[in-house]
Amino acid sequence: MDRAMLLDHLAQAEHHVSVGARHIARQREIIAELERTGADSTEANLLLQLLEELQALHLADRDRLLAELGVSEPSLNRPRP
Q1: Which domain holds residue 59?
Q2: Is 76 inside a domain boundary?
Q3: What's the rounded Cα separation, in Å, for the pair 67 and 24?
Q4: Measuring CA to CA, how many Å separate 17 from each of 33, 37, 54?
Q5: Does the chain have fewer CB atoms within 10 Å around its N or its C terminus?
Q6: Residue 29 to residue 31: CA distance in whole angstroms
Q7: Residue 75 class from Cβ within 10 Å (0-12 exposed, 13-18 middle, 19+ buried)?
Q8: Is the dihedral of CA 15, 56, 72, 68 positive or negative?
């Protein structure tokens, strides 16, 4: 894969990481509200677990792309999404 394509894929991966972080934060808010009101949060917790597993995959994909680009630190030398 050429560098331009790697950078495009990295931008997509960064976007997925960003969106995933927002979804996880929102799901935690939902769980807190359910628990505060005494509602059953079982399904919400299962969804949070799934979101966290997906986020780990997104992070691994991003890190793999960074390694292919020769970048050792995620915050260095990468385009902003």
Answers
A1: 3-69
A2: no
A3: 26
A4: 24, 30, 9
A5: N
A6: 5
A7: exposed
A8: negative
